[in-house]
Design brief:
Radius of gyration of chain B: 20 Å
Oligomer: heterodimer
Helix content of chain A: 25-40%
Largest sheet of chain A: 5 strands, parallel
CATH class of the largest domain in chain B: Alpha Beta
CATH topology of the largest domain in chain A: Rossmann fold
Number of helices of chain A: 15
Largest sheet of chain B: 7 strands, mixed
Number of domains of chain B: 2
Number of helices of chain B: 9
Strand order of the largest sheet of chain B: 9-11-8-12-10-13-14
Distance between the termini of chain A: 27 Å
CATH class of the largest domain in chain A: Alpha Beta
Order of helices and strands of chain A: HEHEHHEHEHEHEHEHHEHEHEEHHH
Number of domains of chain A: 2
CATH superfamily of the largest domain in chain A: HypD, alpha/beta domain 2
Strand order of the largest sheet of chain A: 2-1-7-8-9
Shape of chain B: globular
CATH topology of the largest domain in chain B: Phosphoribosyl-aminoimidazole Synthetase, Chain A, domain 2
Number of strands of chain B: 14
Structural class of chain B: alpha+beta
Chain lengths: ~375, ~350
């Protein structure tokens, strides 16, 4: 859709030729980030890479990995009369056990969609009678903004604002997947946005300890093809390492300021990932120093262990064990207009992407 | 194993009318079907589909109706008043119908500034003057504060067919070309930018009346069908054509005109420009024989100066829309299913 499209298609065909020539075996590559999943579909990349390369969508959609018990606890709080709940748009339609924020909103509850954490400060200042609760999810990409908002709220002494922090860390889940003998991943396409914050170091154990080639990759189709090429070469050479094809944005040391912000406000905690289970040190909890702003304590939130909806295999989809069409509910009972699991809700969820793009090449010409 | 009872219970619980039902995709389609099934049809339209933008009451009189509520009410490139007249007259224009009469109902929230309200009516009237459309009947209601968000305007437009050919999707044939009359997504991106406070200075809605351009081609035999790419955007129109005609559609991403501002807003909010609403952009299908005539006639008008052929109708991949992407891949374009929401990261 732009003037450089001729050169883009030229670049694309060069990269695809290079991948095809270099690649001699059947391999599974996992794109960890939901933005990658959508980009792969949106640009039709599955239709141009060689058939021996299978792309698996990983647990990189923050909405999808949020545990149902955590969602239920937040929904319960949103039912309180004095509470205004602010959250990111993707969370709105995620079904809890008996309702969703979209349902509550339709019933007249005060639910606000925000695009940046700092908007919570404005809402809290504008409406001092209301209790603003920020239902905050996301990886290391959104956590620094939450941290910075919490610091500002503390400085301003805002008493009607608190945060449910369900932020999650990327490196621990990668290790969990890499060490699971039941999952065959030959290479990781690592998330570009998260890497902008974290830099290179947190991923080094993946090739070094688990022998899985990994490449930090951007979101343009050329970036993704370059990432695939880098991993294919590592596999063929038998020398797994960490590479980056996103050097124009990602610095080796990451974003030091953002990391400091996170370290000031958050501490690691064990966190439950939907469908994957509890992963040690994979969550970001608000430090004691900022407890007044922690909704967990302020509202005494109790997270119950909840069984996922019967038949829903989001967990297996998130860990790459099955593709969405292999789930018995896919397209039959679970659709984007009536989602059962979160992978169908979020625009970046694998099931939603498979549904919207009809699995890409597989259904074309049928 | 899972219990079906449990699953169906869950589905029922989710069945409320939500904003998604208003977004122009699958949910809207369901909602409309629920309503129309209950009523006797008053349609005299030879077209087989319910999915055209207006319908014929007799051999030459056509009618359409639309309600307008937009937040913010004033946006770069227009306001709710201008939108209300452009929107419904465009629904006539794209079937080759000259808009002539307007019936309007306004529902106003108590407390609205009189000067602000008059401003919207003046904008609406200005479009009517330009088009030669007369206000024939109307209604006003004022409702208590907080029972609606400011102002709802409903406009019903009537007109007389200016083309003898009944433009509509039942005319579409394999080999036909598809064009869009201007760059896509400007209205949706402008509203999105305003709503999420992105403060774009250069972005402006494409809100415009299409009749002055379309009337130049009403006698052209090559025109098959035309649609106003409003709610649901270009993507939805193409999907409805493919499904409604039982034919396939192939488009090329690199041919679709789109401004860099719209792309930026989409990048930030995670929107897909193919599904963003337009308010002065039509998709048109025509026999390739008329290509030069149609393109040059429409391109003379400022609102269609970016007109561009984006693809064609094919006999394969029935009911499906495929887009050849910039990088050389093939992407299936499906109907959007719910309201587009800004993503997390």
């Amino acid at each position: 859709m732009n003037h450089s499209s001729d050169s883009r298609s030229e670049k694309g065909s060069i990269l695809v030729r290079a991948i095809t020539r270099a690649s001699s075996q059947n391999i599974n590559l996992m794109e960890v980030c939901g933005t990658h999943t959508v980009s792969i579909f949106r640009h039709g990349l599955r239709t141009i890479i060689p058939e021996n390369i299978k792309m698996i969508s990983g647990p990189g959609c923050p909405v999808c990995v949020t545990d149902q018990g955590d969602i239920d606890a937040a929904l319960e709080l949103a039912e309180e009369d004095m509470v205004t709940m602010a959250t990111y748009g993707d969370m709105l339609r995620v079904p809890g056990t008996s309702t969703s924020l979209a349902d509550l909103k339709a019933r007249g509850r005060d639910i606000r969609i925000i695009t940046s954490a700092s908007q919570c400060i404005e809402i809290a200042e504008k409406d001092p009678q209301k209790e603003i609760v920020f239902f905050s999810v996301g990886f290391e990409t959104t956590a620094p903004a939450t941290a910075s908002m919490l610091l500002e709220a503390q400085k301003k002494g805002l008493e009607n604002l608190s945060v449910i922090s369900l932020h999650k860390r990327t490196p621990p889940v990668l290790e969990t997947l890499a060490s699971d003998p039941g999952i065959k991943i030959d290479g990781f396409i690592l998330p570009g946005h998260v890497s902008v914050i974290l830099g290179h170091d947190p991923y080094r154990s993946i090739p070094e300890r688990y022998g899985i080639p990994s490449c930090i990759t951007g979101f343009e189709p050329e970036d993704i093809l370059s990432g695939i090429f880098s991993i294919v070469r590592q596999i063929e050479e038998g020398k797994p390492r960490l590479t980056s094809v996103y050097g124009r944005v990602v610095k080796k040391e990451g974003n030091i300021k953002a990391k400091e912000l996170m370290a000031e406000v958050f501490e690691y905690c064990d966190a439950r990932w939907r469908g994957i289970g509890e992963i040690k040190s994979s969550g970001l909890a608000i430090k004691e120093k900022y407890r007044k702003l922690d909704a967990q304590y302020k509202w005494n939130l109790k997270t119950k262990e909840v069984e996922p909806p019967a038949g829903c295999r989001c967990g297996d989809v998130l860990s790459g064990r099955i593709t969405p069409p292999e789930c018995p509910l896919f397209r039959t009972i679970c659709t984007p207009s009536s989602p059962v699991g979160p992978c169908m809700v979020s625009s970046e969820g694998s099931c939603s992407a498979y549904y919207r793009f009809r699995g890409g090449a597989e259904s074309w010409n049928r | 194993m899972f219990s079906l009872l449990q699953i169906s219970g869950r589905c029922r619980k989710l069945e409320q009318i939500t904003l998604g039902h208003g977004s122009g995709g699958r949910l809207t389609e369901q909602l409309i079907k629920n309503i129309t099934e209950l009523f006797p049809s008053g349609r005299k339209d030879p077209s087989v589909s319910d999915l055209e933008d207006c319908t014929f009451l007799s051999n030459d009189i056509a009618v359409t109706i639309d309600s307008f509520t937009v937040s913010p009410r004033i946006f770069p490139g227009g306001n709710i008043g201008k939108l209300a007249v452009c929107g419904s007259t465009n629904d006539l224009a794209v079937r080759g119908v000259r808009p002539e009469w307007l019936v309007m109902s306004v529902v106003i929230e108590e407390g609205m500034d009189m000067e602000e309200f008059n401003g919207y009516m003046e904008s609406a009237a200005a479009v009517c003057r330009d088009l030669g459309v007369k206000l024939s009947a109307g209604d006003t209601k004022v409702v208590p504060r907080n029972s609606l968000d400011g102002l709802f305007i409903t406009t019903c437009a009537l007109g007389t067919a200016d083309t003898p050919f009944y433009w509509g999707m039942n005319n579409i044939k394999p080999g036909d070309r598809i064009a869009v009359t201007r760059s896509i997504g400007a209205h949706g991106a402008t509203i999105g930018a305003a709503r999420y406070d992105l403060g774009s200075k250069t972005l402006s809605s494409d809100c415009a009346a299409l009749w002055p351009a379309i009337k130049e081609i009403t006698k052209d035999r090559s025109v098959r069908a035309m649609r106003d790419c409003t709610r649901g955007g270009l993507g939805t129109v193409l999907c409805e054509w493919a499904e409604g005609t039982d034919l396939g559609i192939e488009i090329e991403e690199k041919e679709i005109p789109i401004s860099s501002e719209v792309i930026s807003v989409c990048d930030v909010l995670g929107f897909d420009p193919l599904y963003l609403a337009c308010e002065g952009c039509a998709a048109i299908v025509f026999d390739p024989e008329g290509e030069d005539r149609i393109l040059s006639a429409l391109a003379r008008h400022k609102d269609c100066s970016e007109i561009k052929i984006i693809g064609e109708v094919v006999d394969e991949h029935k009911k499906m829309v495929g887009m050849k992407t910039d990088i050389g891949g093939m992407r299936v374009i499906d109907m959007p299913v719910a309201e587009m929401l800004p993503r997390i990261c």
